[in-house]
Structures are given as structure tokens and as C-alpha cells.
Amino acid sequence: MISQVNHLFVSPITEKGSTLISPQNFQSLNIRCFRSSHNVKVSVPELTTQTPVFPAVSKISRVARTDGQEALFDYLHCTRGFNYMDAEHISKNSPHFLQSLLSKIDNDQDVTRALTRFFRYHPINEFEPFLESVGLKPSEVTSMLPRDLMFLSDDHVLLDNYHVLCYYGIPRAKLGKIYRDATEIFGYEDGVLDMKLKAYEKLGLSRSTVIKLVTSSPTLLLGEMNSELIQVLEKLKILGFENDWMGGYLSNRHSYSWGRMLNTLHFLNEIGYSDEKIATLFKMNPAFLFEGSGKRIYVLVGQLLKLGLKMNDVYSLFCQNPNLLSPKCAKNLWHALYFLLEIGLEIDNISNIVSAHIQLLGSHSLKGPKTVLRGFKGDKCRLCQTVKDDPLNLFRLASKSKLNVDQMTSQSPGKLFEKTTFLLRLGYLENTDEMAKALKQFRGRGDQLQERFDCLVNAGLDCNVVINMIKRAPTMLNQSKNVIEKKIDLLKTYLGYPVESIVSFPSYLCYDVDRVHRRFSMYAWLKQKGAAKPTLSVSTLLACSDTRFVKYFVDIHPEGPAMWESLKSSLRSAN
Question: Is 47 a member of any domain?
């Protein structure tokens, strides 16, 4: 196994001298997502020439857009016989196609009437708005239009498989990646696709995890069940992880190589990691396995071993610095190694610096060696001696940002870096105003912040979605894990809303529990009385002032004021 992956190691050392991969070529180490070879590209049929394919979207008024969507919905639902859900989704999620329709009528015309007349004499190619509505880009739609077909009803097999995926729970807007990367899925005979989806559930995976798997790696639904994925699941089970553990870290924005992931697990065993140590690494930072499907482990472990570090030393470095595989930290580390080798520092000295100061090396960008050498009049020997005398001189002389090295190193490394480490995982850049502001906003230790983050992921939110929520409302993570769980429970119990309903309103988690409890209870009571709309947004219920809430959600029912006072009294007595 190790011999098979040796070609993945980018050695910084040669027999004739000390050289390292140039930082300009660092991007070559980035892990490219695999791409399916199943893309079907066909020419655009002449039938579609009547509808220009997606001109550049210009600004249209909100009224015109709404009228256009309604006209397109009426055409699809009433004239063409689409079911309500399909017609509504297509009409509301094909803005480029809608723009092309609106460009065919005069600005001073009544949009609804004009489009209704247009549809009467100019049937549209229904594949255009359909493919756009499932998430394909306009340029992708153009290349994937089927030959000699205009009406979706002419391809009932495609529609049947489309509905299988929708009814399984896959968001319609995410089906575009499946259509692009594994088009054959939409040609399966009746029952085949449903059988394949359920086959993955039989492995012990929940439906939500299966959805994340197939939206991130659509080719899992092609051919036989993916044996490499099965082996990865079996290995993770041996390590003590439940089958659905990976579901919390998969993202449909990425694709995954299960073969590479499996090789990573075997590779760690073969270079001396016990199952217990591997489990500890992945618990501390799942990115070791999921970012790049594990390839960064090959590269980074190989580099550290070639510097002369022992396997136990490498393991300790990973455990103490779980953010080392983040793209930013890895790039900084490569720049630092390049710097030290370029100025001619001996390998033993480099190894000692890496062992003692790897966190600083990964957290700070360094200037180029030529820039620093100007202060030494090009004398590499004198610069090397300066670094040997005190390795921290490297950061004093070469760091791109101003930092008080003495103050930083005098503090406990754990206290200093654990919160910073967490923020780096979220995508914050070190030594920036954004990072400084975030350090002040977030309360708690790094492990506590990670626990709260994991709580949201375990509740069913994609980790990338949670990161975006945190950046929009940072103080949401200042709630304890118990409070976050309670607020999610209130959302489900009183409103019956899924946890995804707070994605657009992350500030929900910042509101006082009593306020949430009181207002949700009142709204639930109003719905039972038939006095309120059934699906009001969370922000509508919480963001308004008490006076406004009383006006619109209490006084609208004769018994409302009494119920409101009763709720407040019961909460006061409970506290």
C-alpha cells in the first residue's frame, strides 16, 4: 500500500540539495473533485430556435416577474397538465428562461395577457425551464437539451425518475448535479431507482445520509452498489463511528472518492496508526478524511516523515493541531518549509522548528526569502544563524502581519490557539480584522464552540450551511448546547417546522427562550382556532416588537388577550 502511494508524496528534499515544491505550484496539491464520465452532451435541436436560450438576465420589475411566473405556471399546470408542485417549482426557479419570455413582449403590455397569447401560438421547449429549475446553469442547459423533444410528457421515463428522487426527499434544486453527472439515472425502468436508494438504506444509513451521498456523488446510483463506499462504512464502524456519522460532514457542493478514502484509512494503519489513534484524529477533525477524500493526509504525512520526524511525533502534532489540513494552514506550512530550505537551513534544524512551532508556521503567512534577505544584504548564512539562535526570529523577521511573538509564546498554547483553531475551520483568516472581531464575539472555549457547532450539524443541517449561518449571526454560538437543543425542540414541537426553516433566519437562536416559548405557544393556539395563517416564518413571529405582536397575534381573537396573559403567568411560575 505504501509503495502504491509514494508517488503522491511531494518530497522537499533531494540528494543534491534542499529544494521544495515552489509555493506558486502549491495549488497543484489541491484535491480536485472527481468528475463523472457519464455526461451526455447533445446538440441543440432546431425545435428550440423559437425560444432563444437564456439571454443575459437584465433587471425586470418585481411585478413583471411575478406576473410572468404566474402565466408560466398557468400554462404548465392548466394547459399542459403538469401537477401543481412541478408547475410551481419550474415557474419560480427558471429566472433566465422567464427573462427570455419577457423579452418577447413589449414593456407596456399586460404581462399575463401577453404571455398567455404567446403560449397559445408558440409552444415552448419545456426542457429549458425544467433543467434550469433543477439547478443547472444556463450554459449547461444548452448542452444537455435532448434531441427532437420539446414536451416533458414525451419523456415519461425521465419524469417518473424525477418524481422518485423528489418523493424520496432530494430537493428539486439539487437534482441538476445528478442529471449532469449521471444522466442515465433518469432512464431507469420503473422501480429500479427506488430499489437502488433503498439498497443504501439497508446498509444502516438514514434517508438524510443517503440523500447527502447521492447528491454529492450521483454516480453511486449507477451500476452495482459502490463496494468501496461499503468498505469505508465497515472500516468506520470498526473505528467506533455510527453509519450516519459521515452524513454530518458531507456536502453536495463537493464530490468524494470512496476509493481514495478507503486507501487513506488503510494507509494510516500501515504507517503505524492504531484504530484508536485514527478514531481520535477523525473525531477531532473530520476534515482529515472528507476534505479531498483524504489525499492531503498522504502529502502532509509524507513531507513530515521526509523531514525526519517519527511517526509518533507526527501523530502528536496532528492531535495537538487538528487544523493543519485546512487549505490555508497547509499552504502556510508549505511556504515556511520552502523559505527555510531556500535560505539553506539544515534539515535537522527545520525538523526541530516544525516540531516546536508548527502551529505558528501554519497560522501565519511568511514573506518570501528574497524579501527578508534584503535586510541581510543577501547573506543566507547570517540569516540561517539568526534563525538557529532563536527560531522565533523567523516570525519576527518574516511574518507578513504584525505580531508579538514573545507575548504569544508566553501564554499556554492550548488557551491561545483552541478558539483560533475553531475559527480557522470556519474559514476565518488569521491576523485579519474579521478574525479579531470574531474572537471578541464568540464566548467560550474552542471545544465548547465546536460542541455547539456539532449540535446544529447533528440536528440535520449541512456543515457548510451552519458556517454561513454563524457568519451571519455569530452570537448564535454563544448559546450553550442545551439551549440550542431546546430552541430546536420548540421549533419542532410548537410549529412543526424542520430545522432548515431557521437557515434564512439564524438570529432565531439568539432570542431569549421565554420569548420563543411564549410567542410560539400563542401562534400554535391561534392556528388551532383558525385565526392565523398556517406557515408564517419564524422571523415574522420573533423579530417584531411586543406591541406589534400583541396587535397582530393576540388582539385578533376575542380570547387572545386572556390566553396571552395565561401563557406569561405559566412561564413566570415555571421559572
Answer: no
Q: Are residues 385 and 439 in the same domain?
A: no
CA proximity to 499, closest of 454, 461, 458, 541: 461
49 by DSSP, 3-state: which? helix
Is 177 a member of any domain?
yes
Which value, in Å, is the radius of gyration of the alpha carbons in the chain?
A: 29
376 in Cβ contact with 417 (< 8 Å): no
Q: Give yes or no: residues 239 and 175 share one domain.
A: no
Domain end position, chosen among 270, 296, 325: 325
In a domain, 44, yes or no: no
| Whether residue 68 is found in the same domain as residue 182 | yes
Tell me, yes or no, whether 498 and 433 share the same domain. yes
Asked, for residue 176, whether it belongs to a domain, the answer is: yes
How far, in Å, CA of 232 to CA of 496, rounded?
A: 35
Q: Cβ–Cβ contacts within 10 Å for residue 21, how many? A: 17
DSSP single-letter state for residue 58: P
Q: Tell whether 369 and 481 lie within a shared domain.
A: no
Q: Same domain for 448 and 518?
A: no
DSSP code per residue over 242-281: -GGGGGGT--TTS---HHHHHHHHHHHHHTT--HHHHHHH
Query: Where does a domain end: 466, 495, 510?
Result: 510
The answer to whether the beta carbons of residues 21 and 12 sit under 8 Å apart is yes
- What is the full per-residue pLDDT of the chain (575 aa) written as tens digits? 444 444 433 333 333 333 343 444 433 333 333 233 333 333 333 333 334 445 444 567 788 888 888 989 998 999 888 989 999 999 999 999 988 888 888 776 788 888 888 888 888 889 999 999 998 888 888 888 888 888 988 889 999 999 999 998 888 888 999 999 989 999 999 999 999 999 999 988 889 889 999 998 899 999 888 899 999 999 999 988 888 888 888 877 788 888 888 888 887 777 667 788 788 778 777 777 887 767 777 777 777 888 877 777 777 776 666 566 566 777 788 888 888 988 888 888 888 888 778 877 887 888 888 988 888 888 889 989 988 888 888 888 888 876 555 544 444 444 445 677 777 777 777 666 777 777 778 877 777 888 888 888 888 888 778 888 888 888 888 888 888 999 999 998 888 888 888 998 999 998 888 899 999 999 999 988 888 888 888 888 998 888 889 988 999 999 999 999 988 888 777 65
On whether both 71 and 162 belong to a single domain, the answer is: yes
Decide: 127 and 152 in contact? Cβ < 8 Å: yes
Which DSSP helix (H) or strand (E) runs through 70? helix 62-74
- Residue corresponding to grid cell 456539532: 454
Phi, psi of 18 (to 5 degrees): -100, 110
Report which of 63, 49, 56, 64 is spatially closest to residue 102, judged by C-alpha positions: 64
Cα angle 564, 567, 569; round to 5: 110
Q: Are residues 70 and 151 in the same domain?
A: yes
Domain hosting 234: range is 226-325
Other CB atoms within 10 A of residue 117 CB: 14
Looking at the 3D structure of the chain, how many domains does it have? 5
